[in-house]
Amino acid sequence: MTGAEAVLQTASAAGVEVCFANPGTTEMALVNALDAVPIRAVLGLFEGVCSGAADGYARMSGRPALTLLHLGPGLANAIANLHNARRAYSPVVNLVGDHATWHRDADAPLSSDIASLARPVSRWVRETKASAQVALDAAEAIAAAQEAPGGVATLIIPADCQSGEAPGPAQSIPPVPARPVGADRIEHLAKQLRRGKNAALHLGGRALSVRGQRAAGRVARVTGCRMFSERFPARFERGPGLPKVDRLPYFPDWVASFLEGLQMLVLAAAVEPVAFFGYPGMPSRLTPEGCELLTLATADEDVEAALEALADAIDAPPAGSAPRRRPRRQGRRCPKAR
Question: Are 132 and 203 in the same domain?
Answer without folding.
Answer: no
